Each structure stands twice: as structure tokens, then as C-alpha cells.
């Protein structure tokens, strides 16, 4: 395991370099350069589209199924609560501090190390490693833009901080803009129809709304009113009130079905901003789930969004770090978590290869 121990050291060094290099969404060109250089220094040919980098295993065989390893290298903006320099990697008390260390730099370098470990080995599947951009904003220049460049993919392992448990389901997201129309009038007289009061009925409905179906794994859909705007003058009855809904949708619904159920129950005119970010769920009898069971991994349904929402084939989400630390001030990952993450990914693939061999023989 000497090679693996060396890769763990290299992964930590790479993560420090990534932390030191600002990589806000749509501005990840410098971290893309670092990732590309890391692979090419090892003789691994890379491909690039925008700020997305990908590579295939050396013995790629088009007759074999292909497994995707994916994590992202963009970050959110550092929040104002930071007491440390977000772009200065600091090791202290077994932790590595820095913006993107936990979300999702630790996962990314762990998957990259795993890919390098298996790069020249004979396997019953192909591997493609994609370090993607724009995940934090679900941008169209991220993983979605790369999928058309890849062969047919059988399964994806998406690296996100999950405390090394496996998310086998993930809620999708639909943002809806709502408009309630009234009639303008003078506030001093009994004139007009107040759009704010009209919207109140909707808001009460939303507060108490229960979707008809529930997911066995993810539970109910969740809808929240998060923004409201109306009126421009104190003495004018507003003729329009707008509000925004954040809808977290489980695998029990398509986004279109969830939208229709809300539309039926609300008086506002509703317009979804996008129907791209779908929920995901992987079948219990899938070889990846069987692998997780064999290894005794914890499995759960995730309420938070990732690039899984844009991957139109089976996927799981797993990685070192803790989602509760994502986007927080003085973000960090434990060094031991990162090392354990690499070991787990290597073992996960080893067991998956074993199950895959048996099912194809």
C-alpha cells in the first residue's frame, strides 16, 4: 500500500494548492489548470471544456461499462464570519482550514487519488474522472456541459461531504416565481383590491401545504415561501404582489407533477425558473447499493442539492467531510477524514468490481 500512502500525501498537498487559488463559480480557470497539471505530471492525458477537466483510465475498453467519478472545484464566496484567511491553508489540531476544503476539495482530491491508483490497472469497468465547474450555482457550464462528450455511463460516484455515508437518494430543486394580481386604488378610500391580502391566502396555504405523495426514502416534498414583494407607495393599494417558492422535490414526483399540484391549489400565476434540477434515487438491487451493504456503509436520503441533480443515470453521493461545515466560516476538513476518504473510495471500487464481475459472468 506504499503507492496509496504516497497518493494520500499528494492529495493533501493538492488540496492546499486548491485552497490557495480562488475558484468562485465561473472563475475556476486557475484551479482547472492545477488539476490538469496534477494529472499530466503523472502522464495522464486530460480533456478540457471550459473549466471542466476529465480523464479516462489507461486501459479504456469501449466494450466495458463506464463508471464516472465526479466532484467539483468551484466554491461559494467566503462569508463575513471568517477569522482566518479563506485562501491560506492552515493545518491545526488535525484540521486543514480553508475555503473549499470541506466542500468539496477533500472529496475531489480523494477521488483524483483513487483514479490515479486505478489508472493503469485492469478492471471490469472503465473509469472516467471529471473535476467539474459551476456546481455551486448549478451552472450550465458545469457537469451538464461535459456529459455529451463522454461515452454512455452506467453509474456515478459524486464526491460531496457525507461523513463517508452513502446518499442513495437526493431531493431535486424547483424555484417558482408567483404573481398575484389585484386592482390599484387610493389607500384612504375603499378602492381597489389589495394584492397583498390576496397573496396572504396563498401564503397560508403554502405554510400548511402537504403534497399528496411521499417518498419512502426522502419523505415528503418541502415547499417554502422565501421572498415577497409588493407596493411602492404608502398611500396606494398595490395591484401586484410577487413571491418566490423554494420547492424540494423527492423521487415520488417529477418536477412537472409537483408544479401542477401547487398550481392547482394556489391562486397566483406560477412560473418555474427551471425544470433541470431533478431528484435522484438508485434502486436497492443496484450493484453499487449491494456493494455499500456488503461494506456496512450507512445509507440515507439527502435533502441538499449536488451535481446528482444534473446526472441522468444512476448515481450515489459519498465523500469525506461533513455537509454541516459547508459554506461556513473557517471551513475545514480533518486530515484523517481525507485519508479515510481515499481508502474508502479505493475499497468501494474494489468491492464494486468484485460484484460486477460476478453479475457479468
Description:
Its cofactor is Zn(2+). InterPro entries: ArgE/DapE_CS, Bact_exopeptidase_dim_dom, Peptidase_M20, Peptidase_M20_dimer, Peptidase_M20A. It is a single chain. This protein has 361 residues and is of the alpha+beta class. The chain has 2 domains: 252 residues, Aminopeptidase (3-Layer(aba) Sandwich); 101 residues, Alpha-Beta Plaits (2-Layer Sandwich). Helix content is 31%, strand content 25%. The strands form 6 sheets. A 6-stranded mixed β-sheet has the order 1-2-6-3-7-19. Strands 13-15-9-16 form a 4-stranded antiparallel β-sheet. It has a 3-stranded antiparallel β-sheet with strand order 4-5-20. The radius of gyration is 23 Å and the shape is globular. It starts with a helix and ends with a helix.
Notable features of this structure?
single chain; 361 residues; alpha+beta; Aminopeptidase; Alpha-Beta Plaits; six-stranded mixed beta sheet; globular; Peptidase_M20; EC 3.5.1.16; zinc
The name of the CATH architecture of the largest domain is 3-Layer(aba) Sandwich
Number of domains: 2
Kindly provide the radius of gyration, computed on alpha-carbon positions and rounded to a whole number of angstroms.
Answer: 23 Å
What is the 3D shape? globular
Give the SSE string.
HHEEEEEHEHEEEEHEEEEEHEEHEEEH
Please give the share of residues in helix: 25-40%
Going by CATH, the homologous superfamily of the largest domain would be Zn peptidases
Mean pLDDT reading: 95
- Stretches where pLDDT falls below 50 for ≥5 residues? none
What is the CATH topology classification name of the largest domain? Aminopeptidase
Main beta-sheet annotation? 6 strands, mixed
CATH class of the largest domain: Alpha Beta
- Which structural class should the secondary elements be placed in? alpha+beta
Q: Quick one: how many beta strands?
A: 20
Instruction: Tell me the β content.
Output: 15-25%
Q: What strand order characterises the main sheet?
A: 1-2-6-3-7-19
Number of helices: 8
End-to-end gap: 29 Å
